[in-house]
Amino acid sequence: MALKVLICGGGVAGPALAYWLARIGHQVVVVERFPVLRATGAQIDLRGHGIEAVKRMGLTDAVRQKLVDEAGISLIDTKGNVKATILANKSGKGAQSLTSEYEIMRGDLVRILYEATKDQVEYIFGRTVDGFTENDRDIVAYFSDGSSDTFDLLVGADGQGSHIRRNILPPGAPDAYHQLGVYVAYWFVPWVESDNNMCKAYLSPGGRLIMTRSHNKIETQVYFMLRSDSEEVRNIPKGSVGQQKHFWAQRFREAGWQADRFIKGMDTTDNWFCQNVVQIKTDTWHSGRVVLLGDAAHCPSPLSGMGTSSSLVGAYVLAGEIARDESLSQAFQTYSRTMRPFIDEVQQLNVGWIPWAIPNSQWAISLVHLIIELACFLRIPQLISWFSNDWGGDWKIPDYPELDVDRVDRVDRVDREEIQ
Fold this sequence. Notes:
Elements: E1 4-8, H1 13-23, E2 27-32, E3 43-46, H2 49-57, H3 60-64, E4 72-76, E5 82-87, E6 102-105, H4 106-117, E7 122-125, E8 129-134, E9 139-143, E10 148-151, E11 153-156, H5 163-168, E12 177-190, E13 198-204, E14 208-214, E15 219-227, H6 231-234, H7 241-252, H8 259-265, E16 272-280, E17 286-287, E18 290-292, H9 295-298, H10 307-324, H11 328-346, H12 354-357, H13 362-377, H14 380-386, H15 405-419
Helix pairs in contact: 1-4, 1-10, 2-10, 10-11
Keywords: FAD, Flavoprotein, Oxidoreductase
Pfam families: FAD_binding_3
GO molecular function, one term: FAD binding
């Protein structure tokens, strides 16, 4: 039976699910709060099962055409001298290093998913789901423009700050936000000759880290990362953009390296983002005819490098279970049961390493430089990549023949020929 599905969120997870559901004949509507396609954002990567999910969508070539040429990551000192370099593992074997073989700008991936779905999926921009009511037969969504419509199910793919998640959590449920004590701002600055295809990471005393990545010869991505337990810092992302920029400029003005250049670039950037680095953990991924997807259900945090991949995998698994079971309740339960071991793996972050990765003192920074320099000299990062697998442990991505429309068509054609 064809379902009428409302997906809240037009980033990565929502359109990925829309791709699969529309492919098997469901009527899909994607509602996005931004007035146009939000094809912005910084560099993201695909790893492990996320790469496999893209392959199963048939979008590998489209993604490869937009990959960012990043050779690896270099740890530098305040003069820009390279202390150690970890190269990307582009052998096609083993695990990805800190730089993935599949580095891509978020906006490019969003556009790829939109182009792959726009002819079969209805996109509504500049609107949000303000509320909903449901019964045994359907769910009524109430939109920000005063309109409403009836659907068979509602998918919350609206990010780590999910409004849909807040509406389905039971009273007294634990806070879904797990603070990691790390905060980040990123923006783009004009490219200069010293910017190249190597990601650069610079540690500064005071729990500060500056990172740059150059995705083209027009602009360079800048990341300021701060380690802090201060309540004041925790509230910075809630302030205005002007307040955010003032805070980050003050905290990093004397940080060294090219901090002054990057702070100056805040004034002219069209891309600005500031956030608390958190994980989303909740026992509630679904309720009635509502189900959560991607960061809304299980944001693993940017530190894991698995946010995009887990969203793509989740979209595939959720679509597969919906295709396999006519009972939405059973499909949601199986989706949750299937995905949780994988999410448990990708969310396994040892926060104890954060003070060592972003030290407070200069002597600790010098120690980090020494350790990483020695590890690179002994080729330990390469050995780890060659003889290990990407995130997911023993978890295997399921196979859903129900989503292989071409296979189903071939089987039907053979059956008809045999009958004739």
